[in-house]
Amino acid sequence: MRIAHVLPAMRRAGAETVVALLSRGLAAAGHEVHVIVAGGRFDYGRDLERTGVAVHLLGLFQRYPRYWELGVLRRIRAAVGDALRGIAADVAHCHLAQALIWAAPAIRELGIPAVYTFHEIGGFGGGFSPFGRLWDRRFEAAIRESGARLLAVSHHAAEEWAACLGIEAEAITPQPNPVDLSMWPAPVAGPPPRRIVMVGTLYALKRQNVALRAICRLPGASLDLIGDGPMRPDLERLAAKLGVRDRVRFLGVRDDVPELMRGAGAAWMLSEQEGMGLAAVEAMASGVPIVATDVPALNELVRDGYNGLLVPLDDPEATAATTERIFSDDALRGRLIGGGLETARRFALEEVVRSHIGIYEETIGRKRSRQHVDAG
Length: 376
What we know:
Blueprint: E1 2-7, H1 14-28, E2 32-37, H2 45-48, E3 54-57, H3 70-87, E4 91-95, H4 97-110, E5 114-118, H5 130-146, E6 149-152, H6 155-165, E7 172-174, E8 195-199, H7 208-215, E9 222-226, H8 232-242, E10 248-252, H9 257-261, E11 266-269, H10 278-285, E12 290-293, H11 298-301, E13 309-311, H12 316-328, H13 330-345, H14 349-375
Parallel strand pairs: 1-2, 1-4, 2-3, 4-5, 5-6, 6-7, 8-9, 8-11, 9-10, 11-12, 12-13
Helix pairs in contact: 1-14, 3-4, 4-5, 7-8, 7-12, 10-13
């Protein structure tokens, strides 16, 4: 099977990590895999070296084009279409709304069976902006135009997007993100270090500010913030103001997260919302107990007391107290590690790749059946 993944860019973030993993897994399973990247950023060279995955880096922009930059958007649509024509894919899998908007005309013209994954929680981003509402309408139109089979990374995301689109929940298939278990180190024996890891882009909704206020309440503990983003200057100032700058490392975007995760005493995921919570699964795979906010879809993934502990949103006191339980209660820590490892196995790359192959084959079959009916 010839599979084309289409993305706006390939910075180190959740959806892009998933595409890199899927591409490598599909190639290992014997399929011909192409990755079309409209922008000029590709942070996954080392991940895909010598995997057989063909990367088409179109380099059409460095920053995302604005809604009103119609000439740029037309060039992007044309270039993505040309790439799809050249590949002659059996199925096109688009990730993130821009990719589907740009690819939909070619998908319709060429009759390519298509799949789209909602990586984020349900909800359009346009709000009250006229250009934003225009972009939302373009996204809805692209879903219809492409006829894409719709996937979402959690049951909650599927339900939210079905409600936004006014369609039946069953029209969107929950399909979790994968984790390559071979990349994540085995648990480290011995007493847990008072080192906490938090992985995620430095956005307000990720609540690193809550993490900084929580670390104040954990004497002798340190915090590694892995990721970068627009909130970094504010967070650095807050860490200095709170007097914890010497206990917090702002590590930026890294490609050695498994090594940084290894041996941590706990991991935090304190977001306002998540599509799935891939970083939580990666912590579980590493044998690092996770403390997560009790919000969708994290509470779909984390079962309190079994594979992690849940805390209220925006509650640094509860976050600190709950983390202290992990540091001080060996029996609890052992239960959480065991439950986390068992959970992580459900998201093993090989299992998720097999599931995707089944979805692709079914999508191709449906498309051929419709074409046969139309021809008749």
